[in-house]
Amino acid sequence: MDVRQIQKGREEICRISAMLFAKGLVSGKDGNISVRIAADEMLVTPSGVCKAFLEPEMILRQRFDGTVVEGELRSTREAGMHSRLYELRPEIGAIVHTHPAAATAFAVCGEELPQDILLEVPALLGKTAVAGYAPAGSRELIAEVEKCAKSDVILLQNHGVITCGSDLADAFARMDAAENAARTIIYARLLGEPKRMPAIQP
């Protein structure tokens, strides 16, 4: 990948980060975003910076073994989680990890998004998975995520949500859809017992 493509990737991360913040899908300094740029390299957001205020020069270029190739800021402690998913699924081009309120509420309860309430869940998100609790940035968390790597939407117990996509726009769209679905299901449960639909294969 040449310098112009890497710069374009950094700019795209900043653009999507701002969109996530504007839509309330990320808050404060939480979350992390990455884009695969080579067989063993990614661009990834730094630690401790609000996603609304990211600038391209803040985005790190990092190998999957943790080596920072370019960047002055400290990398996110969850970079290992991103790199492991890339290693397990070569078709993934980008990963978004945030803590959106409604989808994270499902994660806190250890509950997947049901496949038989909203058509969008099986049609757009596929089968979601719940990774068991482990401290953020830990090897234990990476091990829990590995068990769920086949899913494009992974709910992290008591933590947040990961979405994977062919590119960053795809991963963003999945996060947006997952949060909207979670919010709708919660509203429906507040109103009464949601009607169920026939099973649909994702």
Number of helices: 6
Secondary-structure-based class equals alpha+beta
Largest sheet: 8 strands, mixed
- Termini separation comes to 34 Å
Mean pLDDT: 96
Question: Segments where pLDDT lies below 50 for 5+ residues?
Answer: none
Alpha-carbon Rg, integer = 16 Å
Kindly state the percentage of residues in helix.
Answer: 25-40%
In what range is the share of β-strand residues?
A: 15-25%
Strand order of the largest sheet: 4-3-2-1-5-8-7-6
* SSE succession: HEEEEHEHHEHEEH
Shape assignment? globular
Strand runs, count:
8
List the main descriptive attributes of the protein structure presented here.
alpha+beta; eight-stranded mixed beta sheet; 8 strands
Please provide a written account of the structure.
The chain is of the alpha+beta class and 202 residues long. The chain contains 6 helices and 8 strands; from the N terminus they run H-E-E-E-E-H-E-H-H-E-H-E-E-H. It has helices spanning 3-22, 79-88, 101-108, 120-125, 139-146, 168-191; strands spanning 32-38, 41-44, 60-63, 68-70, 94-98, 129-131, 153-156, 160-165. An 8-stranded mixed sheet has the order 4-3-2-1-5-8-7-6. Strand 1 and strand 2 form a beta hairpin. Helix 1 runs parallel beside helix 6.
